[in-house]
Design brief:
Number of domains: 1
Strand content: 15-25%
Helix content: 25-40%
Number of helices: 8
Shape: globular
Distance between the termini: 47 Å
CATH topology: Catalase HpII,  Chain A, domain 1
Length: 363
């Protein structure tokens, strides 16, 4: 059965009330919190997804049998691209992995074709930043502003308190499910168990342009070895358990993931401006675009860790026009990521560099 996908148009986005003022306040508040973290660590870290668990070199192969509606943007033609990936945890400070947290999987696809967004990131790369649940708790600029204080308090709280918050959230989520209601994205985010991050499925959460259409990108385990890790809870977790399992896994084996897109069919039920709304997969299933493969490697060598944490930069606005981020959350990110990157590189006295080849990434 043919599906009628919503068509992209530049007038689909709608600026939210007081969006410019709220964005300035959010960026300023995040900057102040990030500077406090810098004073604690005497080193500048990212103001979101601060803790890295591994950096990977890989290859993305665009499938050669895509139907016309999927041959969009960088997926328009069969091709193979080099990729840099970063695995991380969501909080804006460095905590023990004993604290359950959303996990991130960011990929940088090198040397892609296509016109760039005017005034945005330099280079020829395409970044997709994904988290391991499909909806964002604070899906609009107004909700983000209200939630920011809570998120920052939780991020800065002692680890034992954060473990208590996560446990309470898991209990509340169970109660909600017993009574037949769907737990909200906020509750789901606080209640994340310590599952093996290599077996998770990751989502852009916010919408983006997908050539002639509107979509959300996701990354799912494909090879048997990472599919076997899906839902596997890590026991005896210590401060760097996630890093250790990534390093141990890739020391002697590789992995494959599938990059997918979910296209919007109804912009009332699949809105652009509210990233808290999970798009119904029965109305629009995930569709495979490409295979992402990683060979065995040292995912956290000292040189690679320093390069990844201090030099490397991921930004959803590092993209081609055909994959422009959409919605108020992504418009916040446009300002927030730029400010964060400039501050981090200035405080660490490290020059920003956008890699052009995998040879620039230390082994």
């Amino acid at each position: 059965m043919d599906i009628d996908y919503a068509r992209w148009s530049p007038d689909l986005e709608v600026l939210q009330p007081d969006e410019a003022r709220l964005t300035d306040e959010i960026v300023s508040q995040m900057g102040a919190t990030n500077l406090a973290a810098f004073d604690r660590h005497r080193h500048a870290i990212r103001d979101a997804h601060a803790k890295s668990h591994g950096f990977l070199k890989g290859r993305l192969r665009v499938h050669d049998d895509l139907p016309a509606h999927l041959r969009q943007g960088i997926f328009a033609e069969p091709a193979t691209y080099d990729v840099i990936a970063r695995l991380s945890s969501a909080p804006g400070d460095i905590h023990s992995d004993e604290v359950p947290a959303p996990r991130g999987f960011a990929i940088k696809i090198l040397d892609v074709p296509g016109a760039r967004l005017a005034g945005e990131e330099p280079g020829r790369n395409q970044d997709f930043l994904m988290v391991n649940f499909p909806a964002l708790a604070f899906g609009t600029v107004q909700k983000y502003k209200k939630m920011l204080g809570l998120l920052e308090k939780n991020a800065n709280a002692p680890d034992f308190f954060q473990r208590m918050v996560a446990a309470a959230a898991r209990g509340a989520e169970d109660v909600v499910e017993v009574f037949g209601r769907e737990p909200g994205a906020t509750l789901q985010g606080l209640a994340r168990d310590n599952a093996n991050l290599l077996g998770e499925t990751y989502h852009t959460q916010g919408a983006l342009r997908f050539g002639d259409y509107i979509g959300k990108i996701s990354l799912a385990p494909a090879s048997k070895n990472v599919r076997a890790l899906t839902g596997r809870i890590i026991k005896d977790v210590d401060f760097s358990a996630m890093r250790d399992l990534v390093v141990d896994f890739f020391r002697d084996q590789g992995a494959e993931y599938t990059l997918r897109v979910q296209l919007a069919t109804d912009l009332d039920r699949m809105p652009i401006e509210n990233a808290a709304v999970q798009w119904d997969e029965e109305s629009s299933p995930q569709q495979s675009l490409a295979s992402l493969t990683f060979e065995a490697q040292d995912a956290f060598s000292p040189a690679r860790r320093v390069y990844g944490d201090d030099v490397l930069h991921f930004n959803p606005w590092q993209c081609v026009e055909a994959h422009q981020p959409l919605g108020s959350i992504n418009r916040i990110r446009r300002a927030a990521y730029a400010a964060s990157m400039l501050r981090r590189h200035e405080l660490n006295a490290v020059e920003r560099h956008e890699p052009a080849t995998l040879d620039e990434i230390p082994d």
